[in-house]
Write a structure and sequence with these properties.
This protein is an alpha/beta fold. It has 15 helices and twelve strands. Its cofactor is a divalent metal cation.
Length: about 350
């Protein structure tokens, strides 16, 4: 089922100009390969509530991408959640890269006190390279707190090997916040967390794909599978559902991005700023957790004119407010006609999925 307002919107018209007013497809070049891509396409539009973005990754089929469309329509057509803070802190993102590339990437996040490091791109065979990348970040940002993101890259036994190796890093309990989605299934996350406790390792587990790519995100909490959950506004169908998941799981939450443009990042910032910080989150993060919303620094350019990733003005915080595209930057990054036709067809496929749920 989908919310009544969304059911009414998607069944009320077939006119994409009405659903997605002033829509444009943009393509932004990236400074480094990330998730196997060197440029990022997104469809942006100006809804009644403001500018919004629809940008599921190209490999996502309509049933999954439809959630992203629901999130985009919510941000474009509905009021954003009321923020409790004017801005949210950001983490820097270090992609799968050689250790020698780390210093240059760190310089793109001046002021960042937390970094998320991608690992497990080649499973356990890349462990030595992953550890070298981690050590490079520690060397060039020694005061930073770190997170590792495996994107479900390990079977359980290999995840145990990773955790054992990470536990040997000097002072790890003082600077490691969590390892994100080391294994694919919720059941294996729970088994891994039990094994970590039995071995008394200073490692927390965060769930990402087990929250946003499943029918029942609440199983993570029910099985005791994670210490932290990762939520993303657009992939979860919008801020309202994301906030419901946070409340229902009862676990500290970190809001992250799905490599959106500066338009889409603001939906995440408004979601993050609306979430209260409870005692459990304070114990892990010592305040509002740094959000994974600094990914705009991975773009060579963006479509908004404010400096910093997503128009933050710097790379340490992001305003909890909507923003608008800069006309000149928008014009410079408009994708070709074939891309517009492809995204329109994709929207129609997602609308079919949403109407099936109405």
């Amino acid at each position: 089922m989908i919310p009544d307002w969304l059911a009414g919107l998607v069944t009320g018209t077939d006119d994409l100009d009405e659903l997605l007013p002033e829509r444009r497809v943009v393509e932004l070049p990236m400074i480094t390969r990330f998730r196997g891509i060197t440029s990022r396409q997104a469809l942006i539009f100006q809804g009644p509530a403001g500018w919004s973005e629809f940008s599921p990754f190209v490999e996502y089929a309509a049933p999954e991408a439809a959630r992203w469309l629901a999130g985009a329509l919510e941000f474009g057509h509905r009021p954003a959640p009321e923020p409790l803070r004017d801005a949210v802190p950001l983490n820097g993102t270090i992609p799968d890269c050689p250790p020698e590339a780390v210093p240059g990437l760190i310089t793109r996040y001046p002021g960042a006190g937390t970094f998320k490091i991608k690992i497990a791109a080649r499973g356990i065979t890349s462990l030595d390279t992953d550890l070298a990348r981690i050590r490079a970040v520690r060397a060039h940002a020694p005061a930073a707190r770190l997170r590792f993101d495996a994107n479900a890259g390990y079977p359980l036994a290999d995840a145990q090997q990773l955790c054992a190796a990470v536990a040997e890093l000097p002072g790890v309990g003082d600077w490691l916040e969590y390892i994100e989605q080391p294994v694919a299934s919720v059941e294996d996350l729970a088994r891994l967390r039990e094994w970590i406790a039995a071995c008394d390792l200073p490692i927390r587990i965060a769930a990402d794909e087990s929250i946003r790519k499943v029918d029942d995100p609440y199983r993570v909490a029910a099985l005791g599978a994670a210490d932290v959950i990762i939520v993303k506004a657009q992939p979860l169908g919008g801020a309202q559902h994301a906030a419901e998941v946070v409340t229902g799981c009862g676990l500290p939450a970190v809001v992250s991005s799905a490599l959106e443009t500066g338009i889409g990042l603001r939906a995440g910032a408004l979601l993050a700023a609306s979430l209260p910080v409870d005692a459990a989150a304070e114990a892990i993060f010592a305040g509002p957790p740094a959000c994974g919303l600094g990914t705009g620094a991975l773009f060579a350019d963006d479509i908004i004119s404010e400096p910093g990733p997503g128009g933050s003005g710097n790379t340490a915080t992001l305003p909890a407010a909507r923003t608008t595209p800069d006309p000149q930057l928008l014009a410079a990054h408009i994708a070709d006609a074939d891309a517009h036709a492809w995204w329109d067809a994709r929207v129609r496929g997602c609308l079919t999925e949403l109407r099936r749920l109405a």
